[in-house]
Amino acid sequence: MTMVTITPGAMTLADWNAIYEGAGAALSADSWDAIDRSAAAVARIVAKGAPVYGVNTGFGKLASVRIADGDLATLQRNIVLSHAAGTGAPSPTPIVRLMMALKLASFGMGASGVSRATVAMIEAMLAKGLTPVVPSQGSVGASGDLAPLSHMAAAMIGVGAIEVGGRVLPAADALAEAGLAPLDLGPKEGLALLNGTQFSTANALAGLFRAETLFRSALITGALSTEAAKGSDAPFDARIHALRGHAGQREVGEALRGLMAGSAIRASHAEGDPRVQDPYCLRCQPQVMGAVLDLLRQAGTTLGIEANGVSDNPLIFADTDEALSGGNFHAEPVAFAADMIAMALCEIGSIAERRIAMLVDPALSGLPAFLTPRPGLNSGFMIPQVTAAALVSENKQRAYPASVDSIPTSANQEDHVSMAAHGARRLLDMADNASAVIGIELLAACQGIDFHAPLTSSDALEAARGHLRAEVPTLEDDRHFHPDIEAATALIRSGSLVAATPASLPGVG
């Protein structure tokens, strides 16, 4: 197994992506001193006897209730059990593992006051493939992702359920089978485990990673559609984009020029093309997809900072033995980033669906109606375009910003929340929808190019077309369409279309 060393405060998006895709994760060796100093500071703070939120007081609206020293361990256990109140389907294993790795990085900053044993338990569970079963619903993205992280913490103390090797076991049994003893939580440790934005951030990062693959795939299918429609490459001229100045627009224009370079199809109508301007779905690809790229990069910057930060409360400053209460648990930055990714996913699919609609319309594309050699007897791509339209419409509804919503919780103590958790959690479903749209475009564009034989496209786009044709043959007469769509969508979702296309494509990182 590939291993990623978690260096708190210095992780890259590529590091987090590797963990999301299944790499192991362990803290860097030089993190432990900061963890030990922080834990020692909590012990000294407790010894002083002064009231400190979450250490020897109640939580939320109950912060004014002082807890006796003999009850401090019970206090931490109780907060985990009471806050493990999530609902809904279990979160995907890669999301939970990424969430755990993010929590490791946060603890490794030495500002949470947890013991070495607690941090080592998260490491051991990751190493042994023990993934807490974490219901996906129940967080409003402020005071931390309380319910989801509490389910993680509950598994660490032997309560709840753990998935291991495809089996779901009672947490205590799974720990025992792996040779681990349930944790006994010390002062502040329960609160530290469940306070933070790691659930929202893990979901948002997963959405970002999927969006980047989808964006690159859509550049390829957009170029293929341009070729199928014998569209002009003049709108991709570097001089146009230099005058406007947006980095994403310039890079997308360059990528499209590179994808289409050397095309015999393009050369066949470079002179004497009667069309003055192509539809926006072809002509404005640099402007639309460039804006998407800029937006994804902005979201990536926000999430990269969040993943490297500490979102616990209160924060422990070991050099002065202070526990300072603040609001780093408020996930507004993550909520905004998730909303940006949602808009980007929506627009990637939206402009692609317009290209599909253009290709199936002979008045716009100059190709046979619905991309079938014998229209009438055959319906060809009539209904795949309808499917793409349905998916785009669904994503439009899901793209409504989550961050503009709020609802008071905890008896109005927590009176403004971010809604980052569900704002981020929707992203994988939106990416699935958009991937199917791009898969349908891949089928339609390659079918359109088939009609131009014996002319061929560029080397890069012919490689992409060959990659599809290895899985899906040209549509001569109507056949069961669903398997074709599933096969093409799998090429998009897996990133194999991008890998098979020899071209330089911009990305988020």
TrEMBL record:
Subcellular location field: Cytoplasm
GO CC field: cytoplasm
Metabolic or biological pathway, per its Swiss-Prot or TrEMBL entry: Amino-acid degradation; L-histidine degradation into L-glutamate; N-formimidoyl-L-glutamate from L-histidine: step 1/3
The keyword Cytoplasm appears for this protein: yes
Cross-link (5-imidazolinone (Ala-Gly)), chain numbering: A142-G144
E.C. number(s) listed in UniProt: 4.3.1.3
Residues bearing the modification 2,3-didehydroalanine (Ser): S143
Keywords from the UniProt entry: Cytoplasm, Histidine metabolism, Lyase
Substrates-to-products reaction catalysed: L-histidine = trans-urocanate + NH4(+)
InterPro entries in the cross-refs: Aromatic_Lyase, Fumarase/histidase_N, HutH, L-Aspartase-like, Phe/His_NH3-lyase_AS
GO molecular function, one term: histidine ammonia-lyase activity
Modifications after synthesis and translation: Contains an active site 4-methylidene-imidazol-5-one (MIO), which is formed autocatalytically by cyclization and dehydration of residues Ala-Ser-Gly.
UniProt cross-references to PROSITE patterns, sorted A to Z: PAL_HISTIDASE
One GO BP annotation of this record: L-histidine catabolic process to glutamate and formamide
Family: Belongs to the PAL/histidase family.
Protein name in UniProt: Histidine ammonia-lyase
Organism: Sphingopyxis lindanitolerans
